[in-house]
Amino acid sequence: MNIILVDPAELAADTVILDDRRAEHIRKILKSKVGDNLRAGIIDGPMGLARVLDLDGKRVTLRLDCRLSPPAKAVTDLILALPRPIMLKRVLAQAAALGVQRIMLVNARRVEKSFFHSSLLAPAGLRAALLQGLEQAVDTILPTVSLHPRFRPFVEDEVARLTPLYGRRLLAHPGAGPNRATGALGTGMTTGPSPTGRRRQLLAIGPEGGWVDFEVDCFRAQGFSLFSPGPRILRVDTAVPVLLALAEHGLAPAEPDLARA
């Protein structure tokens, strides 16, 4: 926990009293004393410092002075085939830490339908996982998460509607595309321009076994280019940060993968 995040509803003027894991972290990990300043932020708001006013048993009283803007967000939004709940928790935290602004959790042929009934998908469960990522990366702005249990309407309607927002659309798929460029990590990708000033981009990552052919065709019809991080099939919690990093740093497929007619 590299920043203490406070919900606006918890504040009384500029003061907050904590008695949960944040208070325990301040007392036991940071070993703070009255008068110490801590890095703090208001969820979906500014960040800055918090002064410890009182340590009373399990309670910690802080006074916040938050006037700084949070760090810039990533230019890459994420479509993710819903993984197992225990893995989803890690992936959401990693995506939030990497600055992803929008996460769309979608169904796919190789997604177990029971995953959509997980308690983690309740607003409180999603929020808790995302906050862990923000606390790690020192950010305050929560990503937007949406659920899409019907694949075809999502791609043909929702993704089609969003297409104008994204200058580049990438579909990660094991073994996809040529692997003969000399780009980073031998991925078959070449270095492109810096993310600075680039239009937003959309990255779709499937289940560990990859998308089925029908799903690939649906994405390609929406102008997605296929690429692969290499010949190895990665776990989702490994693939997500790797692929996000490649996309965010301007790495593009070695050859354009045009939509099928």
Describe the structure.
This protein is α/β, with parallel strands linked by helices and 261 residues long. The protein has 6 helices and 13 strands.
The main sheet comes to: 6 strands, parallel
How does the overall form come out from the CA principal axes?
elongated
* E-strand count: 13
Which series of helices and strands comes N to C? Answer: EEHEEEEHEHEHEEEHEHE
CATH topology description of the largest domain = Alpha/beta knot
Report the uncertain regions.
Answer: 178-196, 254-261
Brief write-up:
With 261 residues, the chain is α/β, with parallel strands linked by helices. 27% of the residues lie in helices and 26% in strands.
Question: What's the SSE blueprint?
Answer:
Elements: E1 4-6, E2 15-18, H1 21-29, E3 37-42, E4 47-56, E5 59-68, E6 76-81, H2 85-97, E7 102-106, H3 123-137, E8 144-148, H4 151-162, E9 168-172, E10 189-191, E11 201-205, H5 213-221, E12 225-227, H6 236-248, E13 251-253
Helix pairs in contact: 2-3, 2-6
Keywords:
261 residues, alpha/beta, Ribosomal Protein L25, Chain P, Alpha/beta knot, 2 domains, 6-stranded parallel β-sheet, 5-stranded mixed β-sheet, 13 strands, elongated
